[in-house]
Predict the structure of Serine/threonine protein kinase.
Amino acid sequence: MRFSDPDRCGIVLGPDPGHVRLARDWARRNSRATRRQADDLVLAVSVLVTNALQHTRSGGPGGTTQVVLYRRPATYTLSVTDNGPRPGPAIPFPRVEAATNPLSPTGNGLRLLDALCAYWDWTGAAGEPLTVRAVLDRAATPVRFHVKPS
């Protein structure tokens, strides 16, 4: 994706789960920051692209996920747009669920995003593509998560 603003860049990914890694690598390269400074951005990209592939038509045959990064002096604004909900009776909207087991392989993505970001929201309508937007503080110390032994 090309933008006239040099502080905005984007990528369109396919439905392959391996594209999550491509998205992380792309975010790190385009962060214009040190590896450590970019860690929260890379993690946020990973969460949002993974969610799009797992929960929407973006993860199905021919699906796409659009990722846009807007770099400002103090913030990153990350937008991830999916292809809309998968067929079925329930149309999921992003929301932080009740606490789950922190070691569970699923169910903690938006909780993690919430901890990483200064702000996040979403736009879209039932049955249509959805865009999740996250604003990250570029000056913040990267979030570190530690699991305490029981």
User: Anything to note?
Assistant: The beta strands are 8-13, 65-71, 75-81, 119-124, 130-137. Helices lie at 19-30, 39-55, 109-116. The longest strand covers residues 130-137. The chain has one domain: 8-137.
